[in-house]
Amino acid sequence: MKTQDPFKYFRDAIDYELEFVEKEKSRGRKIVGIYCEYTPREIILAAGAIPVCLCGTSNSTVAAAEKILPSNLCPLIKSSFGYFITDSCPFITMSDLIVAETTCDGKKKMYEIMGQRKHVEVLELTQKSDSALSLKHWVDELRKFRKTLEREFKVKITDSDLRRAIKLMNRERALLRKAFDLGMRNPSIVTGLELALIRFRVAGFEKHLEMLEKFISDVEKRGKSRKKPGGPRILLTGCPTGSGSGKVIEIIEECGGVVVVQEACSGIKSVYELTEEKGDPIEAIARRHFHLPCSCLTPNRGRIELIAKLAEDFRPDAVIDLIWQACHTYNVESHIVGEFVKNRLKLPFLKVETDYSPSDREQLKVRISALLEIAGK
Amino acid sequence: MKKARITCGVDIGARSIDIILFDGRKIIDSIVINTGAKPRERALSAYQNLLVKNGIRKNKLLKTVSTGYGRNHFTDADEAISEIACHAAGVAYYFPDAELVIDIGGQDSKVIGMLPGGKVVDFGMNDRCAAGTGRFIEMVSDILDIKIEDISKMSFRKVSGCEINSMCAVFAESEIVGLLQNDVPVEKLLKGVFVSVAKRVVSLMGKSFSSREIIFTGGVAMINGVAEALEQETESRITVPSNPQITGALGAAILAGKR
Ligand code: SF4
Ligand code: SF4
User: Fold this and answer.
1) What is the CATH class of B7-90+246-258?
2) Checking DSSP bridges between strand B16-22 and strand B7-12, what pairing results, if any?
3) Is A363 in contact with B83 (Cβ distance < 8 A)?
4) Is it true that B7-90+246-258 and B97-240 share their CATH fold?
5) Is A330 in the pocket of ligand 2 (CB under 6 A)?
6) Which of chain A's termini has less CB crowding within 10 Å, N or C?
7) Sign of the dihedral through C-alpha B74, B80, B83, B89
8) Given pLDDT bands bounded at 50, 70 and 90, which one contains residue B1?
9) Where are the beta strands (DSSP E) in chain A?
10) What ranges do the domains of chain A cover?
11) A240 CB less than 6 Å from ligand 1?
12) Are A135 and A290 in contact, with CB atoms under 8 Å apart?
């Protein structure tokens, strides 16, 4: 069942990942579940373990979660928790440890409930983006985390282990970045839905990297023959999406637009900056992660700077801000983003607040096609 | 005979289907029917009947544009355009200098900011909730057991409304039942409902929308009390076109002639 078609490969990526993780687990490697881009995958890899992203991106587990969690919570949290309590995700079952961060309140409290059943290690992410003290605390958290992993997994994590892991993650991020950068082409040569395919769960998996290279070269080859301009180019920002929660990308492209770049964690944000390979590795890892412009930080100027840079490079015709219902940080921040997009970038802007269910598809279509009509003129 | 430039606009909304024949300058004929359970079939037969009635063969039409929730399912249309763009174009027909439109329909409400001539620059729409839409007013009229037609022409200018705080239509319903039990007069209650709808809609406007005159369209625009409440909340002059229900279909027909 080895396919050479990268599109097909990434559509089925979860099967390959499952096979890989099961095999490695049976050989004694540890599995670490993660839920956020702040999680230092490098330290986990340096401990010889495999980091697996457990973020829930399916509506199917939301109802189960609502038996315990309040229903007006973000669907990403509910879906993730639903998988957890129904024990329906093999990656969760295989995880020896779950690593979490103090990001948004919903997640933070969810981790406490998860902690009643499984070992959850919470890293305290300090939230003042421009404070040296905050960064210092985060560095300390990561040093402690290194020790925790050494103790839990009975390994020694050397600096050169860390450097090797940094190199591996940098290679992965650089390849993802190169793939996302394909969206800069105008006329576009790749759709937002295709680019959404390549966000896999398992980090440091060699096969993925091979196929990513193939993905990039296939898209480039295909792109040579594309001359006619596509529909309006959209920069999508806001909350992360995933397989099963790509509703808004689907609607944008059904209505004739093309998502040329996704700013969110599921898009370019998480691979925009690489980890420095010189100097103290823990400090380098801490710095890179601390620079991630998530709405949980305050102030989150980095996001505006990133959007400005992306607007320059990707030349979007409009910006859409995706807010998962009850995600307060992104929802509130949307005001700042909207003002910036409208007044400074002079681009049409639309905030879309929704959840994983398909019930509001038609309403969203009206809004999105109206935006595309404005942007297309 | 000069080559006809007749276009057709079909607005398939959640509550009604509106169809307009337009000759490039004026409305030739129009029809408004309830949407019913089979919107696609109903729209199609109403469309055909309207053409037959006016002696127009389909192949003589320059173009047909559909809009509204059912726009993508109306296969006889040459193009589907969002109701935002269509409403703006329809309003600009009557009010070429209009810059701001508030449209409150059965299921949604929208605010559209536009340039003179009808080009949309920005818009806001209500989210999933029915508060701030015609449906909410219908619910209230059911509770009060008063027909909408009976309150439509009444003026509530002198009435001070009671406070309705619920952000959700369903909770607002129980709040209203509670107010009734406390013997709050019906006029005060209705005024309160209209003001709460107006407030909802104004919250969609954001800072970027403001205008001395606002054109108010959609089925709800036929209720005087809501227009009054909007005037009070926006401090702008509210103008209701003579047939506020059909601006979407009219805009579709107009845009059909432009593309
Ligand atoms: S959006 Fe923020 S909380 Fe969510 S994965 Fe990204 S960094 Fe973590
Ligand atoms: S989308 Fe918002 S509320 Fe949901 S997990 Fe991410 S930061 Fe938290």
Assistant:
1) alpha beta
2) antiparallel
3) no
4) yes
5) yes
6) N
7) negative
8) very low
9) 31-34, 50-53, 97-101, 120-123, 233-238, 258-262, 318-324, 349-354
10) 6-155, 161-375
11) yes
12) yes
* Paired tokens of B92: 């600009």
Residue with tokens 């801490």: A286
Tokens of B41: 């079939």
What values do phi and psi take at A324, rounded to 5?
A: -70, 140
Tell me: the pLDDT tens digits for B181-233? 888 888 898 999 999 899 888 888 776 677 889 999 988 999 999 999 999 99
Report the sign of the C-alpha dihedral through residues A62, A68, A73, A77, in that order.
Answer: negative
**Chain B residue numbers touching A374 (CB-CB < 8 A):** 120-122
What distance in Å separates the CA atoms of residue B161 and residue A275, rounded to the nearest whole number?
Answer: 61
Q: What single-letter DSSP state applies at residue A74?
A: -
Closest C-alpha among B194, B60, B191 to residue B136: B194
- What is the domain class of B97-240 according to CATH? alpha beta
pLDDT recorded at residue B208: 62
What is the distance between the alpha carbons of residues B163 and B188, in angstroms, rounded to a whole number? 9
Strands (E), chain B: 7-12, 16-22, 27-34, 63-67, 79-80, 100-104, 109-115, 119-125, 213-217, 237-239
How big is the CA angle at B153 (ends B148 and B159), to the nearest 5 degrees?
95
CA A268 vs CA A9, A174, A182, B76: distances in Å = 21, 10, 11, 42
CA triplet A300, A302, A304: central angle to 5 degrees? 90
Q: B82, B80, B63, B187: which is closest to B125 by C-alpha?
A: B82
CA of A26 vs chain B CAs: smallest distance (Å)? 48
Tokens of B141: 């009229």
Strands B27-34, B63-67: pairing is unpaired
Q: How high is the pLDDT of residue B4?
A: 67
pLDDT at B256 over 70: yes
Q: Using a 6 Å cutoff on CB, does residue A37 contact ligand 1?
A: yes
Taking the CA atoms of A56, A61, A67 and A70 in sequence, report the sign of the dihedral they define: positive
**Ligand 2 centroid to A240 CA: how many Å?**
8
Is pLDDT of B139 > 80? yes
Domain boundaries, chain B: 7-90+246-258, 97-240
Write down the CATH number for the domain with range A6-155.
3.40.50.11890
CB–CB of A32/A52 below 8 Å?
A: yes
Nearest alpha carbon to residue A91 among A38, A54, A41, A135: A54
The backbone region for B55, taken as left when phi is positive above 0, alpha when psi lies in -120 to 50, beta otherwise, is left
Place of tokens 């839905």: A193
Query: Inter-chain contact B122–A348, Cβ cutoff 8 Å?
Result: yes
Which CATH architecture group holds A161-375? 3-Layer(aba) Sandwich (3.40)
Closest CB from B72, B123, B128 relative to A360: B128
pTM (two decimals):
0.91
Same fold, A6-155 and A161-375: yes
- Whether cis (ω within 30° of 0) applies to the bond prior to A187 is yes
Question: B180 is written with which tokens?
Answer: 């009734």
Q: What is the pLDDT of residue A225?
A: 72
Question: Could you tell me the two tokens for A257?
Answer: 């637009």
